[in-house]
Amino acid sequence: MATPTEPADPWRSRLSTRSRSQRSSAVRDLLRLVDRPEILSLAGGLPAGELFPVERLAGAAVDALEAAGPLGRRALQYGATDGEAEFLDWISARDGRPGTSSLVTTGSQQALDLVARVLIDPGDVVVAERPGYLGALQVFSSAGARVEGIEVDHDGLRTDLLGEALGAGLRPKLVYVVPEFQNPTGVVLAEARRVELLSLAERYGFLVVEDDPYGQLRFRGEVSTALGPRHDHVLRLASSSKVLAPGLRVGWCTGPSVVVQAMVVAKQATDLHTSTWCQRIVLECLSDETFMAAHLDSLRAVYSAREQALREALSGHLDVRPVDGGLFSWVDLGSGVDATAVLTAAIERGVAFVPGEAFDASGASNSCARLSFASLTPEQLVEAARRLVAALESSAP
Ligand code: PMP
């Protein structure tokens, strides 16, 4: 942003109205500082890089290059916009139901963008979890949606509050949920609430967008049943980012055919198709059941140990509720505490986290923080916890 002494860049006035209205937030500006090597970051949403299955991916990459198809070197050729046929078969065997279609996307983030493009007109209502995934809130807001946040508690989205809002006249085009190990709170949507959400979707005619990048990272407790394969009102999004590697940029979605076909047309104008080579690498790995079982076991064991290390290191200082999977813990830093102010003190002491206000569509400041335990070792997590407690003590009123 231009300071008073700096003239405004003349290109700014030429940006579209939509781009000009997108502003950097105070939290984002602070988080730009956390890439310094001395900072132990609990802020990133990144999976652990040392767990990427490099050898298996390299083998699959070579296999894909060597496979020829009717169009020649298939992995390096243009492909269909909806995705490689074998990949689409694999997706629909898992998530499909009558009347649905599937689409391979450039990460599940692209599916969020496409769904907003094909469903949202400016002023339409979207319901999202509060707190909720920042990347989705941004997509819906920049499509012109009015984002209504509905509170999340330890059992996920408060479907009772959603029911009340609908009863009072709220008419969303879609309700966006992350039912497994939600970003940012790590909670799972309880089964009774899943049933209630689906029945509200049917009654009020909205689409449920089920975003599930973390479901396979369960390290404790019972597996829940996904929403997509059991109801017509669901568009289910999944991704290889957290189970293989995010740099591949391969995600997919399945849902009502009319919606998915409209997304295919929108995707064609965006990037023609998701990388053919990456789709073939991902498909080879995901369909190798022996490899995936062992790989997921090792991811779960590492994340479980890290989650426990952080929780135990903070116990006695902060009440971190155990999570059963995923990458995130959520903690209340104490009533009346402004988490964004604590972040400034934390960065000075060499630790970072994401303050709760980043996950609230209204941007209201609050006392909560998202702590990612995924990409630091248990020893680093213990040190990060020590620095966080010191920052908190130093910023106490
Ligand atoms: N949804 C959620 C809830 C996420 O946390 C993320 C990434 N952090 C994404 C979608 C995007 O993932 P990707 O595009 O890598 O599949």
Task: Kindly describe this structure.
This protein is α/β, with parallel strands linked by helices. The protein is 40% helix and 16% strand. It has 13 helices and 15 strands. The strands form four sheets. Strands 4-11-10-9-8-5-6-7 form an eight-stranded mixed β-sheet, sandwiched between helices. A three-stranded antiparallel β-sheet has the order 12-15-14. Helix 8 links the parallel strand 8 (174-177) and strand 9. The relative contact order is 0.16. The chain binds 4'-deoxy-4'-aminopyridoxal-5'-phosphate. 4'-deoxy-4'-aminopyridoxal-5'-phosphate binds next to helix 5.
SSE layout and pairings?
Layout: H1 17-20, H2 26-31, E1 40-41, H3 54-66, E2 68-69, E3 72-73, H4 85-95, E4 100-105, H5 107-119, E5 125-130, H6 134-142, E6 146-153, E7 156-157, H7 159-167, E8 174-177, H8 191-204, E9 207-211, E10 234-239, E11 251-256, H9 257-271, H10 276-286, H11 289-314, E12 328-332, H12 339-348, E13 351-352, E14 354-355, E15 368-372, H13 378-394
Parallel strand pairs: 1-13, 5-6, 5-8, 8-9, 9-10
Antiparallel strand pairs: 2-3, 4-11, 6-7, 10-11, 12-15, 14-15
Helix pairs in contact: 3-10, 5-6, 5-9, 7-8, 11-13, 12-13
Bound molecules: 4'-deoxy-4'-aminopyridoxal-5'-phosphate.
The site of 4'-deoxy-4'-aminopyridoxal-5'-phosphate (PMP) has 14 residues, from α5.
How would a textbook summarize the main sheet?
A: 8 strands, mixed
Give the uncertain stretches in residue-range form: none
Numbering strands along the chain, what is their spatial order in the largest sheet?
A: 4-11-10-9-8-5-6-7
Name the ligand types. 4'-deoxy-4'-aminopyridoxal-5'-phosphate
* Order of secondary-structure elements: HHEHEEHEHEHEEHEHEEEHHHEHEEEH
Shape: globular
Q: Would you tell me the overall average pLDDT?
A: 93
Strand content: 15-25%
Structural class: alpha/beta
The count of DSSP E runs of length 2 or more, i.e. the number of strands, is: 15
Task: Provide a count of the helices.
Answer: 13
Percentage of residues in helical conformation: 25-40%
* Cα radius of gyration in angstroms: 22 Å
Distance between the termini: 32 Å
